[in-house]
UniProtKB/TrEMBL annotation:
It comes from the Eukaryota. GO terms for molecular function: ethanolamine-phosphate cytidylyltransferase activity. InterPro entries: CCT, Cyt_trans-like, Ect1/PCYT2, Rossmann-like_a/b/a_fold. This is ethanolamine-phosphate cytidylyltransferase.
Amino acid sequence: MIRNGSHAVEDEDKRESGSSSHSPEKRKRVIRVWCDGCYDMVHYGHSNQLRQAKAMGDYLVVGVHTDEEIAKHKGPPVFTQAERYKMIRAIKWVDEIVEGAPYVTTLETLDKYNCDFCVHGDDITLTVDGKDTYDEVKRMGRYRECKRTPGVSTTDLVGRMLLLTKSHHSNVDNTAYQLHTDNFGKGPKGHSPWTGVCQFLQTSQKIIQFASGKEPQPGDTIIYVAGAFDLFHIGHVDFLETVHKQAEKPYVIVGLHFDQEVNRYKGKNYPIMNIHERTLSVLACRYVSEVVIGAPYAVGKDLLDHFKVDLVCHGKTEVFLDTDRTDPYAEPKKRGIFRILDSGNNLTTDDIVQRIIENRLQFEARNQKKEAKEMAVIEALKHKDDSLKAEAALAKK
């Protein structure tokens, strides 16, 4: 059981980043931070970047690129710009978004939105002609770097969908998964450290960073929902926003089913994301107050009494029977606290996977193109470093 919340996380994050060491004079004014990106297939790695960025200041502005800009510089996005805008708005550390932000970050953009500096991960983002999109702000000292989240990338998630194996449920030692890490999107000159695939290792510290520990308050309406919430997407966001609107003071608890349970009722290679990854994805959503890791499939008396649940909600998607062929929502229905909600968005995880499968060649080409540009930069940096070492050696003679 992990408590969450859309506020009260900033103090903890600022302690983590050391931003509390700012002088009192500097802390008198609001520090505005800028982030930007494609934010296609938003995952907990993106959320973690935004969490770290918010910890460096007080107010986080996030610029999201258009479909046209992404197609020009990288290749076709999986999600539309309208979907990507809404996904970023749903992340609890984001204060404001800028739709249609320019692909290249300039001082003009930072000044336009009154931002002190921009934050990006410790990887590199390149334009269509291989130039660093943050070159100008780096040179002018208005760039900060945060740690990239190891073990997750859009490359990896796309690969899992295309593999149709269950290797990602356990570890990366499996032959099929290793083949994916070796080959998917590999450019002609080898792997880029920014596009490669590695294993995600969950830690208690990471969960603490994402959660806030907010307790339900007197007068709160405790609402329970459960499911896989796999590849956390805009369909989930719209549903949880609808759930959040069911009460004046909602306290939304999300029960996440274990991987084996999800695979029982979903089949194929589901879930694409394991339980640890799905936990962080849901915790990052501003409409969620608490997460139950490994929730029972049947919403029974013990669970309802333990959390003092006032309302149980489910979307319009199919309700699968429990292993004993019983209705998992029999108890809340009996109590008269069960409600079917229509968020107006019927997008499912199956639909996302289908988008990927239908455009497989495009995404593989996009990834190879991206990695080739990154490898060219790595070679150039290595050549520059070798030249500097050679010059230093000659100077010593």
